[in-house]
Design goal:
heterodimer; A: two-stranded antiparallel ribbon; 2% strand; B: 299 residues; alpha/beta; Rossmann fold; 2 domains; six-stranded mixed β-sheet; AAA+_ATPase (chain B)
Chain lengths: 275, 299
């Protein structure tokens, strides 16, 4: 396993484009997080301090940071897609197999790398959130700090799931640009499924339940948008704002199911293909 | 003799096209094998199958004694197919170290092998800056990293200039003289003739011949003759039971033998018959002529 990760890291790290993209995907969410946490003074007219909105309080901070940070996954998604695309266009996939790597090892080396980076991203975000939270939060009792730490798990599962989807598209289409375009197509297809389900069940709730099983939607649903929750904390008496934002085991299970399927299909595809 | 590769009834179909048909042969340790055949005869497909990149349709093959998986066996094999494939953004040394990691061997031989192919002074240049000849030499260095039991080369001189071709052939000869088993696929007959002891001839995916190069066809060679008394010579040859086919081109007469006969015996015979030869050469068919005969016979 270590050997497979080392292999892939060498391929990525010596490539300048992927090095920059990896750097961006780690540094950018960090910078945004730090910038948003400092007091910004607009030329003495007024000061903007997001911390005062209460968004840096435990436990809601776990929810907000993981939600926002997950948008930066697209940078690493480009890396994932191009690490497959490049292997095909340089024909190094063929050479790797001839040199004695098995097809299973090839897919596993990509998958382990995905898990490795997702884990690193999760740990970094976790650490940063913890520090900022400790600095700003009004409550610092351990029971409150670690109350919604499951958002970190959801974040990790979400990243692994999304990158596995990219890996599969990369294997399917062999070209990075096509694979990224396919992500967008899948997004549209999911809305078409929603529309189809709406026609059948004649109910938006039912249709959303169907859509929740689709890959992109299930990943999105892992961490619901936190803004409504922020508003909720400001106006606790408005009951119609209440919604279910917690991480459910079923949501995690669906995404893990998709992840397993994508990795398995990628392997099947490679096994059946003549290179 | 130790078997390195055994292929039994291998078949590969691409849709309706049969690229390899019921092919069987064995590669034994210590010999230099050539796979001969025109373009599209199934050479690369056969190599692709045994190298784990093309899926077979039928039949089977195994490496060594058949006790290890193909991908593990390939760690003891060195192979170059068609074009050299490396990561363009890595240097030669980095590329070779990656191959070492895949093959699970230590990286200490990287410099030694770069030296063998004469690329040591360019080891820190990126692969994309290399010329085709250098790329092909790097591919050979990469194939040698694990000191392989067998070296497989598919059209190694394709697209190279004469110097490049000469360099690659010299490297192959040096490796062969060290006792490494080599399997060389090519459509260039003189290339195979120069380095191979055994040959497998393919046409349209079917095996026409496999065995030693010099036993490829049953031939005792032929004489090339010139004389002043041309018509007399031809009538003597036609009456003689040792010759079955006689060709005349301008003043050059070619007589094919049905049984062995030395040039001096022939010269003596002619002298007794009162014919003085101005030109006498005994030759065997070149591989090219043998190959054409072999493929013609089956047409």
């Amino acid at each position: 396993m270590i050997r497979l990760i080392q292999l892939e890291l060498q391929k990525l790290w010596l490539n300048r484009t992927s090095k920059v993209l990896i750097f961006v995907s780690f540094i950018l969410p960090f910078t945004v997080l730090v910038l948003s946490s400092i007091k910004i003074n607009f030329f003495g007219f007024f000061t903007l301090e997001l911390g005062e909105l209460g968004i840096f309080n435990f436990p809601i901070i776990w929810h907000i940071t993981t939600f926002c940070a997950s948008y930066f996954k697209f940078f690493f998604a480009i890396v994932v897609v191009s690490m497959i695309g490049n292997e095909y266009s340089n024909k190094t996939l063929k050479q790797n197999l001839i040199d004695g790597l098995s097809k299973k090892e090839f897919i596993l080396s990509k998958f382990y790398t995905i898990v490795f980076f997702s884990l690193a991203a999760t740990l970094l975000i976790g650490l940063a959130t913890f520090c900022i939270g400790m600095y700003y939060s009004s409550y610092t009792e351990a029971s409150i700090i670690f109350r919604e730490v499951e958002f970190l798990l959801a974040y990790f599962v979400k990243l692994v799931g999304f990158f596995s989807l990219c890996l599969f598209f990369g294997m399917l289409l062999k070209r990075s640009a096509f694979a990224l375009a396919f992500l967008f197509i899948l997004y549209i297809v999911e809305w078409l499924v929603f529309w189809g389900a709406y026609e059948i069940f004649d109910s938006a709730d039912k249709a959303f339940q169907v859509k929740n099983f689709m890959p992109l939607e299930s990943m999105y649903k892992l961490i619901d948008q936190p803004f409504q929750r922020v508003v909720m904390t400001k106006f606790p008496d408005k009951m119609d704002l209440a919604y279910d934002y917690s991480v459910h085991f079923s949501e995690v299970a669906i995404v893990m199911g998709w992840t397993a399927l994508f990795i398995f299909l990628s392997y099947r595809l490679l096994k059946k293909r003549d290179l | 003799m130790e078997n390195i590769l055994t292929i039994n009834n291998l078949t590969k179909k691409f849709g309706y096209l049969t690229a390899v048909k019921d092919l069987s042969f064995t590669i034994q340790k210590g010999n230099v094998y050539g796979i001969l055949g025109p373009n599209g005869s199934g050479k690369s497909t056969t190599l692709g199958i045994v190298l784990n990149v093309v899926n077979k349709t039928n039949g089977d093959f195994h490496w060594f004694d058949g006790s290890v998986d193909t991908h593990d066996a390939l760690k003891k094999v060195g192979a170059i197919i068609e074009r050299p494939n490396f990561y363009p953004y890595m240097t030669a040394e980095q590329n070779l170290k990656l191959v070492c990691k895949i093959k699970g061997v230590s990286t200490e031989k990287v410099e030694e092998k770069l030296d063998v192919v004469g690329l040591l002074d360019r080891k820190d240049s990126k692969f994309k800056t290399y010329s085709l000849g250098m790329k092909q030499r790097l591919a050979i260095a990469s194939a040698l990293l694990n000191d392989p039991e067998i070296l497989i080369l598919d059209e190694p001189t394709n697209g190279l200039d004469p110097q490049g071709i000469h360099q690659i052939r010299q490297i192959i000869k040096d490796i062969a003289s060290d006792g490494t088993t080599i399997l060389l696929a090519s459509h260039l007959l003189d290339e195979v003739e120069k380095v191979c002891s055994h040959v497998v001839v393919l046409r349209k995916g079917e095996k026409l011949y496999s065995g030693r190069v010099d036993e490829m066809i049953n031939s005792h060679g032929f004489f090339e003759l010139k004389t002043e008394k041309q018509s007399e010579l031809i009538s003597i040859l036609e009456d003689h039971k040792l010759f079955d086919k006689i060709k005349t081109e301008d003043d050059l007469i070619t007589a094919f033998l049905t049984e062995p006969m030395s040039a001096s015996d022939f010269n003596k015979l002619m002298f007794e018959k009162g014919i003085v030869l101005s030109h006498l050469v005994k030759r065997k068919e070149s591989l090219e002529e043998q190959f054409l005969q072999l493929t013609d016979n089956l047409n």
